[in-house]
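ENTRY TYPE: paired fold submission
RECORD: A
CONTENT: sequence, then structure tokens
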Amino acid sequence: MGMGMNSSGNVISILLLLAMGVGIFSYMMRTDPNPDEEMQISASVLSQNHTIYKDFAFLQMPYLPLAYGLIYKVLNTTYYLLIKRLFDIFFMSVSAWLIFRISYSICQSNIVSASLLLFYVLNNTTLYTMGYGANSIMPVPFCLSGFYLFIKSSSQNKMWSGGIFFSGILLAIACGIHSFYLSALPPFLLICLFYPISRPLGNRLYRGVLPLIAGIFLGLSPAIYYYYSYPDAFTFNTYEIHALNKSWYQMTHYVQEMTLNSKLHFILNTLAHPTSLVLPICAFLIFVTLLFDRENLNMNSSRRFILIFQKESLFTMMLLVLTIGVVLIQQPPRIQHLALAIPFLILLISYWYKMLSEDVRNYIHILLISLASLCIITGGKPIFQHIYQIHDVQHWRSISLHRTAVQMKAFVNVDYNDFKIATLSPLYALEAGLRIYPELSTGPLLYRVGDLVPDEKLSLYKGTSRERIYWLFQRKYPGAILVDQNTQNNLVQPFVQFATVNGFKQLPWTFDGLSLYVGEEY
């Protein structure tokens, strides 16, 4: 499966990637940060001088803050949101490029590859995930690269153990960014165990399974280190927190207990958007065409089955089914976790298209062009509506937030050494160059469920809660308090009470809707 492409294909890929890149850039520059993204930035900043899980909580796998923390340290700036989003856009663009090039290497069609690229970038689920914090997008290029290298290294004619080993490393990096990507590992191990069928089992184990496991182990070694160093804290931050969130959702009636039927209904509602619907429609129509393709009808049923479910297509179907299945297990399911299934569905479409006879491919081209046009019409607005304002740097969300943070800093007294700002919106404090409480570095995410955790364990996990926040402030007195009373009123009430009781002065204006309370020394 080569990655070569003719000159017209290179021109198409460059123009498409440029257009999509500019669109994604304008979209991300206008999107507000969310609690997940704030937690990721907080952890990245703290990781420069502190240890993840030991000194502060991070409710995900450790690779993202390690990577961004290093970037922040090298660049030595407090434009944290801007830098993170630039790199998020880079990872998204690499994912789009890989989808284009891998699909072209499979089907050798510019029309198919360009259409699938549009299906990916304009997909409502992909865009939602990008705006939500991108940690479900960042692993995609590692996963796609691992997939391509794995397929190329385990063909019928040769089995390259080195390629399989490096594919395992790439997959492990994806898992180290987001634990959800662990759901992609079993299909790789199964395919490695049973393919190529022509080789003896011992050979497949020695040249395939063992190198893959070794690569995965090496790629996950930093995560394994964190687990063995802080097993209780690591387990809580990457696994147990999800059960607590489930309890919190139900206690607050934010989400009721969902049955399998309601979860399926949730996925169907997610797919109801035209840009999300085009992919399953396209896959279904190509599959039906493949079943009734004249050339395939001349085969006996067993040969047709083997053709349609050959290794590559079976592999992608396994990945697709398992990743969607893991979404259904969650309570509640999350839209952003469906982002992993989209690239696999795109690859499956490419493999099925490759099996079609030349007679029907032109009809499929018409179908793809029609669906791609529908995607542009119905899904182009989010990424193209602000392109004409892309030159207006001062209105980029990351720039305006930084400007607000710097303005806020002028109203606090940071002269004494242990100054910290107490807030569930830590990004503003960090962008201003102020220190935050490690116990509040996750924003509302750990704080809101903290009362469900016993005292000694919450201390171990470096968290606090509504009931305990007063004692935290008594031990580590805040220099200022920043609260968002509109969106987090029930959570920030103890902050406001502490400020009122202890004589903090509320400034008469707000910063992006956040109220600032300053101490008596102001």
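RECORD: B
CONTENT: sequence, then structure tokens
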Amino acid sequence: MTDRTEPQLPASAAVLRRITKKYPDSFFRIARIVLHSLWRRTGIVDTGSSAAVSFETIIVTRYGFDPAHFHAVINLYQDEPPLPSSISDELSASIIAHGIDTDTVTAAFETALAADTPDGTHYTPPEVVTFMFERLRIHNASEQIIYDPAMGCGVFLLEAARRGLSGFTDSTHDTAERYRTVVESLHGVEIDSRAHQTALVNLLITLAPAARHLMERNITPPKLRLNLVCADALTRTDAGFADIVIMNPPYIGEKGHKALFDRTMREAPRWRKHYQGKMDYAYWFIIRGVESLKHGGMLCAITSSYWQTAYAASTLRQYLLNHVRIREITSLGNMPFRFAKGVHTAVSVCEHCSDAAARAEHRPFIIRLDSHTGAAMQSIASAAGLPPGKTASGVSISSYTAAETQSMLGGGPWHFTNPEKRTAGFSASTHIPLGAICDINQGMVPNPQRTARAHVAAGLCEKAGEPIFAFTEEQYRTFIETCTPDEREHFVALHKNSDIAAFTLKKPRRYVLYVTPDTDIASAPRLHNHLSRYKEILIHRRECRTGRIPWYSLHWPRTRMLFTEPAIVCPYHAKTPVFAVAEHGCYAATDVYFITLKKENTVERLACLAALLNAANTRNWFAEHGSRKGAMMLCVTNTLKDIPIPRDYIDNLDRFTAVTEAALSCIRGNTDCSAVEKLLPKDLF
């Protein structure tokens, strides 16, 4: 890691975090104490006379800043609860004795913010910051404009300042001008005023050694222009000014946050052309970053790796193909952000390029951190300076130049394959896509499955967790005791995606009240009475408001035939795609896909097809062409339709009797499933 002028020491860190956790509402009063104590320790203010020196004076005479920018830091925050003097004295004494640094201040801010948000807000770990600067090959950023449109507490800009001022205190030439150049090269935007204020505190801490150096040499600091602003980066239109954009954009999906997306498009209508349903808010920030670059400028962003294959990111991918060369993508797995369950991250480095031919012929460089030890956080920084392909500190690194040029990519999912390990290509003469011979459908939508806390808060029900359409086995057994035989016929066992294994289905443990628009609900009084209790919830569904379904119906029941005829079923997401055969049909929701043959949809033919779908070659194809979200492979409609099936196989299913019989035996639980693939002809693929 890069050396820090003010190193983090456990004593001060422990005191600061303990105080912040106990007094989260007083964070900025604590930050003021941190600054004042740091200035006393570094000699920016004299210990004996520090009480008479105002914050405004220090910021102007020692740093060269306009104090108006730091009004929130200078302010005493009279509306915050006061800190006991003993606490203030303890923190001040610890900092004077041991020092403090920006990483600790940022961690303390996160601790304070966690009191307001259950999951807290987590900023980029310092090891990841170092890694990203190394991937950009930036060692001295003093003459480049660095921009972060999602600045947070300023970790990237602070690292740029440290690198730009490296060796500053040892220099005897042009110190004032270099100081000004470094500070004014930092451009950042942050919408959260608290994070913005924390970034300013961190900037003052980072610049303290340089400010002291100017003071000791009797150099008046230049009047500085501060380019760290509190604003919404997506409403700004400044473009083509940055040499480097480096950021960790917010991970916010549209689901549950639609109001945020609508507000952004209302306040900045230009984002409508970049909007896609179910997209991530981070996609707009990536586009904003590219807009901000000069020709030849570099963008480095750490994001969820899902954007490379997500169908809701096709607009983003096409935009990138039209504006940048994708220099490299490093897949980090879930290492940097272990608290973000299921999120796998990637660091992407792109170069702004207006030459279409150069973009088209470019092949991205791919790096994967395949395995790591428990000390992986430290290993990331260690791996940053090593040639890909080496192993250091428990990190196994594989790398290759992708087989695909950017001209071979489009808005569809991106899959960068290793030329040395790429599977054989598929052609229309030898293979046929699964969608040409099969119908592929999702299961039902039993929305709402049960009452939720939001329903209770809105006064629509008394208790959360009560069954509406979805019942546990215990709830089902209790409910049907008072139902007539005809009413019981409306309940069906519901399979979940976790019930699906290769060839076989586990016994379902949930039930659904299967009520469609065609159901005569009046003839089933027990069911009518049950659903009537939740009528105020049900009528607020969009399809009810538009008259597409009656209030008592399942949201999307599909057709009953989908669930009663034989089908191959596969989970929407699984670590490895698996395909089971529902010999007598089954019921499932949208987390399960149903595959049926367009012609001769018999159990025997489905069993023979399932043998191929569960084979290693199909798994390899998914690895190269499927969409992955975190550790899970997504089996979505478009991916399933594209699975290549050998024509020699599908045209001659009836000839593979041994395969069919073995698959049927697996489906019925009588055979080891691993034996089926051995019966497939070796030259089939």
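NOTES ON RECORD B: The mean pLDDT is 86. The first helix runs from residue 10 to 22.
STATUS: closed
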